Amino acid sequence: MLANLVVAIIALMHVWFLILEMVLWDKPTGRRAFGTSAEFAAQFQEQFGYALS
């Protein structure tokens, strides 16, 4: 029972990391988590072709 709970918590943490890295990295939440600026996020999008607009 305890093992299942621990596995579920770790799985939820991995889902959060996935969302943070793939969706929120250029939003205020992601920039705060990674310690980056809006300018860096814009430069990263331009440099690596992730611009969605």
Q: Quick one: how many beta strands?
A: 0
Low-confidence stretches: none
Task: Report how far the terminal alpha carbons are from each other.
Answer: 47 Å
- SSE topology string: HHH
Using the CA coordinates, give the radius of gyration.
Answer: 15 Å
Described by its quaternary structure, the protein is: single chain
Helix content: over 70%
Mass-distribution shape: elongated
Number of helices: 3
Global mean pLDDT: 88
- The structure class reads mainly alpha
* Strand proportion: under 5%
Profile the largest sheet. Answer: none
Describe the model.
It contains three helices and no strands. By secondary structure, it is an all-alpha fold. The termini are far apart.
Please specify the SSE layout and strand pairing.
Elements: H1 2-22, H2 28-34, H3 38-48
Q: Which tags fit this structure?
A:
0% strand, 53 residues, 74% helix, mainly alpha, elongated, single chain
